[in-house]
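Ticket #4471: complex job returned nothing on first submit. Input attached below:
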Amino acid sequence: MRGVNRDDCIELVEQRLIRFFTESKLRSAALDPSYLQLWEALERVSRGGSRSRPRLVLMAYAGLGGNAATEAASLATAFELLHTALLVHDDVIDRDLVRRGSPNVAGAYRKHALRKGMNSAEAGHIGASVALLAGDLALAGAYQLLRSLHVSDSVHRALHAVLDQAIFASVGGELLDIEFSADRTMPSIERILSTARYKTAVYTFEAPLQAAAIFAGATEEVRLALERFGHHAGIAYQITDDILGVFGDPSLTGKSTISDLREGKRTILLCHAATKPEWLLVENLVGSTGLTISDAEKIRAVLIKCGSKDFATDLALQHARAACELLDVDGIPSLLREQLSALLYKAITRVKMETSAA
Amino acid sequence: MRGVNRDDCIELVEQRLIRFFTESKLRSAALDPSYLQLWEALERVSRGGSRSRPRLVLMAYAGLGGNAATEAASLATAFELLHTALLVHDDVIDRDLVRRGSPNVAGAYRKHALRKGMNSAEAGHIGASVALLAGDLALAGAYQLLRSLHVSDSVHRALHAVLDQAIFASVGGELLDIEFSADRTMPSIERILSTARYKTAVYTFEAPLQAAAIFAGATEEVRLALERFGHHAGIAYQITDDILGVFGDPSLTGKSTISDLREGKRTILLCHAATKPEWLLVENLVGSTGLTISDAEKIRAVLIKCGSKDFATDLALQHARAACELLDVDGIPSLLREQLSALLYKAITRVKMETSAA
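Support reply: We reran it on our side without changes. The output follows.
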C-alpha cells in the first residue's frame, strides 16, 4: 500500500461500508420491509463521519509496509462499525435525538411514532428501543467485518482480542460516565482521565493502531509502542476536545460551548477548578439547566483565572509529547512517526486555532 | 461424549460460565470497582436459567457422535451468553425491572439511583442505560466464547455465521414486536408466526442445532435437517408458550395469565380471534391497562368459543409433527431423533399438563 494514494484507500473503506450495508439490506428485506427501514436508518447514521478510525488503521498499516489494501479496508471498516455502534448506544444513554444535524435512529423512530399519534413518552421509548437494536446490529457488523478477513487463525484471534478489548474498555468508560452523572461529588483528575481513556481513547487510537500492527505483521515491540502512543494521544485528544467544548469557536468546531457547562460534564477543566477557592463563585451555575450565555462567560473567566485552562492545555501537551517519544522504536519507519506526530500535533493545536480570543 | 452423562456436560457449561465471569470480573476490577459491580449484576442475571440452549447444543453434538466435551461446553456457553444479551436488552425494551423474581440489571441500578435521591424518571433512565451496556457485554461475550474454541478456520467461520444469523434474526423479530406494539391493527397470522420465529426460534432452536452439527462435523444434509427441525419446533414451542400465557396454570408455568392480555400482546390466539364476530365483545378489553381477572375470564371464554384455542393447539401440533418428520434423514442417529422428538413432545404437551381446566 506504500505509494498508494491514501485517498484511494479511504475510498475502499467507503466501498466496503456500502457493500456491508447493501448485503445487510438485502438480508433484512427478505425478513420484513420494516427491517429494511431500520438498516436504512443505520446506514444514514454512518454517513458523513470523519472516518478517523479507519484512516488511522490505514495510515499505520501502510506505514508499516502493509500492501493488502482491500483487506486493510475491511479491517478499517470494522472499526468504523464499532464507532457507529458505540455512537448509537451513546445517543440512547445521552437521550440525544440528533447527530450531525439530522435525526439519529432514536430521533427518526420517535418522529415516526409521534406521527402515528403516540404520546411523547411512548414515542421516545420506541425511538430508544429501536436505537438499542440498531447499535446491536452495528456491533455484530464489526465482528462480521473482522471475520471476513482472509487471515490466519492466529492473526484473527489477535485481532479479535483487540476488538474485544476495545468494546470492554468503551463500555467501562461509558459506565463511569453514567456514574459521574449520577453523583454530585467531583471525581478526581485521575478518574476523569482514565474514564476518557476507556470511553474514547482505547477504541479511537489504541485499538486501531494495534490492529494495524498485527495485520501488518509488526513485532510485539512495535505493537506495544503504537498502543502506548495511542494511549497518550487519546488522552491528549480528549483533553483538547474538552477545552474546545468550553473555549472553542463554535463556527470552527461545530460544537456548542455551552452544553458541556449546562450539563455539568465532568471534564479536566471543571475537576481542576473545583479544587480552587474561585470555584465557589460558579459552583451553582455549572450543571444548571437554565445556564445563560453570561453565566457561561462567568465560568470561563473563573476557569482562566484559577489556571484550569492552562493546566488542561499543559496536560494535553505533556501527553502529546510523551506519545511522540514512544514512537522512537526500531521497526516504526520515520515516515510513519512523522505522520502520526503530525496528526497528533494537528489535533492538539486545534486549541489555538479554534478558540475564540479569551 | 457418547455415554457421557449429560448432567456432567451441563455442569461443564456452568463451569465455563463461572470461568467467563471470573475472568471478566478480574478484567473489570482492574478498570474500576464500579465496573466490577456491573459484571456482578450481569452474572446474577445469568444465574438460574434453564440452560435450554446449551442443553440443545450438547444433546445434538453428543447425539451426532461428538466427544470433545469441554469444547462443546464452550460452544454451548456462547449460546447462553447470547440468550443473556437478548434477555437483558429485551427487558430494556419491555421496561421490565424483574427477572426470575429478582431485580434485573435495570431494576438493580434503578433502585441504587433512587437510593441516591434521584427521581423516578432519572433513576429509570440510569437503570435502562446500564442494562443496555450489560447487554453489549454479554453479546461480546458470546463472540469471545466462540473465538475461544480450538477449531479450524473454516469451522470457526461457519459457527460465526450461525451466531451472526441468530443475532440478525433476533433483532429483526424484536423490531417487528416493537412495530406491532405501536400499531393498532392486528397483524396477520403469518406475520405473527414469522416474528415468533425470528425473535425466538432462530436463536433458541435453529442456531444451537446448526452449531452443534457444524462442530460435530456433520454433513450438510444433517445440518439442514436439524435447522428445519429447529424452525418448526421453535414455532410449535412459541405457540404453546402463547397458549400457556393465557390458559396456563400460573402455579405450574410460573407465569401470569393476565399480563399478555393486559398488554394486548399480538399472539396467534388474539390474531385468530380478531377475524371472528365474537371478537367485538372483548376487543376493547384486550390491551387495556385496567384489565381485571373477570375481564380475562371473558376473553378466555371468547377465545375458546370462537375456536382460537383449538386453532392454536392444532397449529402447534402440526408444526411439531412436521419438525419430527424432518429428522428422518440418514446421518441423524435414531437415538438423537428420539431425544429431539421427546424434547419437543414434552414442550408441546405442556399445554395439557399446565392448563387449568377450562
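Chain A is about 75% helix and 0% strand. Closing as resolved unless it happens again.
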